Amino acid sequence: MSNYFKVFLSLTIWVSLFISAYIFSRFTVDDAFISWRYGYNLVHSGYFNYNPTNLDLTQAYTNPIYALMSIFPAILNIDVVVFFKVISLLMCMFFVVYLYRKHGVKYGAIIFMAIPATMLHISSGLETFLFTILLIVLYDCLRDKNIKLSIVVVSLLFLVRPESFILSILVPIYYMTEKEGSANPFVKIKSIFRSKNIKNYYPLVLVIILFLILSLHNLYFGSWLPNTFYIKSVNNEVVTSKAIDFFIWCIPALFFTLFLIKNENTSLFYVFFFLFLAMSINYSMSTLQMDYASRFFFHIYSPLYFILLIESKHSKVVGNKERSNALFDVNCFSLLCLSVFMVFFYIQCKPAELRSLSEYYPRLKTSHAQIGYSIQDSGAKSMVFSDAGVAAFNSEINALDNIGLGSTMVAKYGVNDRVLNAYNPSIVVFKSRPATGIRLKENYQTEIYKWVEENELIQVCQVYFNSSYSMLVYAKPNLNITKLQDVCKKSNYNLNGSDEVFKNYLLVPPWHFWNNDRLI
Asked: What domain of life is recorded for the organism (predicted)?
């Protein structure tokens, strides 16, 4: 490869990263504010809860580590969006340096981060990319047989995603089985009882650590698992279309990538094979309100991509360094494999979806964020709001999430008069469509509307997110509704032609949206 071509390729990679960051780093997902609300409430009201009181104690987050980290911006009075944007940037820098120093990977991580789907997950405010980073660090720990660090990393993963709970079984089994030898899983299991090194049994402490984490949640919230599990998974059967989709894409990918491991360390192959297999089954039974940029797929494909990068540097199957490409440090076979992953992410995220996501947070700031602030100013003490995110965060009052993610009551009983009377909302915000009105058939909104009529709440105004999604606001007559009406008027901008809104939002630098500022 000529030096001129290397320079051209390097510039192309960096320019692609810059363009992707410029367009998509403005993205922050509404769901991120669910976890962030816990730290804010703990600092400002003394309750580690979705609500700023002890009403309806709920473990609404799936990532305790972000809920705990959100304490720091609340204490330091730093904008929570800025704080987590900086955290995301630092994580990416750490990961790039880590891969380079540990494995000599130069551009593989940067190329992957330049993909729009990856940049969206990095910028979202959720734990998606952190989950990938920790899985790769764990992969290296297992590969290097670093028992103590493996325990630390798995413990952190417990606090990042509940999918990692299965590692409390897989990692101890890994250390207690023979690493090489027969690939037969039954032979592997038998070898557990032949291990004489006492250190190989240390990872069993992971079972105790997981039990303690779950016990603390059960003691405080009254449930062992996150509330999202009871809403999204427990009553769902396997969705056939999802299962087919996952297994068509994921099972071949597992074998396609992990055969590199199997030839040198069969136990390591089985750890990640069964981890990703369990995740695929779980995801086939779950639903996401915001499945932007294929979040579920990303949890599987992203670690597999980096495993392939690592193994292409070290595996005897792929070849030696003399045959490697000088720029990427992998040979032509590995480059072909990496290209498959790139193509997958591009076809998973359609151009229309990417365009919508690029203007998502600017629209959210104009609508949900500002309605939250105006509710805070109205004098309301409690509300019903079906998007459990920035609106509830900014309102600083009790918020009944009628979808159920932010409410144990809804998860247990649904929405009925008992639940509504317990909250006694002064404001009710309905999911609506600008053209047809309230979506009564969704998320108990029929029951809520009956309660609103019985308690004589009045219609105030309509807040617009886009031409197909709006929020109809009802309030008790004694509230100050001036700012509510101002927000509704300002949100009319989101009804403008999509090309105009897209162009105006895109021309503004992304860091202009790295905040949760009041606009009214």
From this structure: Bacteria
Residue 184: band (very low, low, confident or very high) from pLDDT cuts 50, 70, 90 = low
Sequence-ordered list of residues with C-beta below 8 angstroms from that of 400, at least 6 positions apart, any chain: 56, 382, 383, 384, 385, 406, 407, 409, 410, 415, 419, 420, 423, 425
**Cβ–Cβ contacts within 10 Å for residue 24, how many?**
24
* SS3 of residue 279 by DSSP: helix
Cβ contact 242:283 at 8 Å: yes
Which two three-digit tokens encode residue 369? 């964020």
- Residues 161 and 150: their CA atoms lie apart, in Å, by 16
Instruction: Using alpha carbons, list the distances in angstroms from residue 458 to 15, 177, 227, 261, 279.
Output: 53, 67, 32, 64, 46
Question: How high is the pLDDT of residue 327?
Answer: 37
User: Which two structure tokens, joined as six digits, stand for 77?
Assistant: 């009075």
Our measurement of the distance from residue 505's CA atom to the centroid of its chain's CA atoms, rounded to an integer in Å, reads: 24
DSSP line for 74-134: HHHT--HHHHHHHHHHHHHHHHHHHHHHHH---SHHHHHHHSHHHHHHHHSSSSHHHHHHH
Which amino acid is present at 388? A
Between strands 382-385 and 427-433, the pairing is parallel
- pLDDT tens digits, 31-76: 999 999 999 999 999 999 999 999 999 999 889 999 999 999 999 9
CA 73-93-96 angle, to 5 degrees, is 150
Model-level pTM? 0.90
Strand partners, 431: 471
Instruction: Identify the pLDDT of residue 307.
Output: 85
SS3 324: coil
Task: Say how many C-beta atoms besides its own lie within 10 A of residue 132's C-beta.
Answer: 25
Domain boundary assignment for the chain = 13-357, 365-495
pLDDT above 90 as % of the chain: 58
- Give CA–CA dist 448/253, Å, rounded: 46
One-letter amino acid of 270: Y
Buried residues in 419-444 as b, exposed as e (16+ CB within 10 A): bbeebebbbbbbbbebeeebbbeebb
Tell how strand 427-433 and strand 437-438 pair up.
antiparallel
With contact defined as beta carbons under 8 Å apart, do 99 and 306 qualify?
yes
